Amino acid sequence: MAGISIWQLAIIAIIVALLFGTKRLRTLGGDVGTAINGFKTA
Questions:
Q1: Structure letter (DSSP) for residue 19
Q2: Helix (H, G, I), strand (E, B) or coil at 29
Q3: pLDDT in single tens digits along all 42 residues of the chain
């Protein structure tokens, strides 16, 4: 992936978690999962 290491991805994930909070990210992930399941059944 164009020179992006696993450490850089980990740092970005930590920054995003700090900005949005883990609870908000968990609900966002659940919403995305529900949408994907909806597309599969449609």
A1: H
A2: helix
A3: 567 788 888 888 888 888 877 777 778 888 888 998 888 887
